[in-house]
Amino acid sequence: MFSYRIILLSLLCLWLSTKGGNSTSPLFRYCFNHENYTDPSPYATNLNQLFNLLYTKVPPHGFGLASTGQPQDQVNGLALCRGDVNTTSCMSCVNEASKKLLERCPYKKGAIIWYDYCLLKYSNENFFGEIDEKNKFYMVNVYDVEGDAASFNGKVSELLSNLSYKASESSVLYASGELKFDDEEEGSKTVYGLAQCTGDLVGSSCKKCLDDAVAEIPDCCDGKQGGRVVGGSCYVRYELYPIVESS
């Protein structure tokens, strides 16, 4: 079955992955429904109402979902902010995401966009509670890890697997952490990671989504200093520098 996985290895991705990225610039977007709507139309009105609802609902808790309109023109959507992002930055990200989706996926009945701070997704189909296995991409820090790559890969897997469990057990489906270890060639190192799911998933579905993402890390990021597997329902990331906002 064809999988919508995009491997981003451009200089832009290098900058985003090594420097943390600009929270106001989208990481990626996908217009996954090629069915069009017109404007003006009930669907266009419902979509704008949905964006307004998410802008209001999401920032206080970091996640929100909503449906607007009657079945024939219904729009379903959700937005998620990264677990460490404050309310003001969350609100700004969701607002920017809704504007950018209208620009980059004009008149499409289903689309998703990711930022460093948030993601936003909408569709004419009800997708709530289902793991999104199609809309996915990788980001790779193109610098190779120094020292024993195989040992480093193992530490990355250990950290992210632990965070997968912690996130799935958390009420907000989010976890971040770090793992200190000794490298025989390079000495002491610390790898930082995070894992998060959209709030429409239950704990067991979140765990499956994250475990699947962790299992894909070797495909994209073997021996690399950092990387991400980012999907429509969950994502994982690791780097050799802190990647969450300090409290």
Automatic annotation (TrEMBL):
Ranges annotated as spanning the membrane: none
Domain of life according to the entry: Eukaryota
All residue ranges annotated as the Gnk2-homologous domain in the record: 25-127, 133-243
Signal peptide: 1-20
InterPro entries: CRR_secretory_protein, GNK2, GNK2_sf
Keywords: Repeat, Secreted, Signal
Main location: secreted
Location relative to the cell: Secreted
Pfam families according to UniProt: Stress-antifung
Family membership: Belongs to the cysteine-rich repeat secretory protein family.
Protein name: Gnk2-homologous domain-containing protein
Organism of this sequence: Stylosanthes scabra
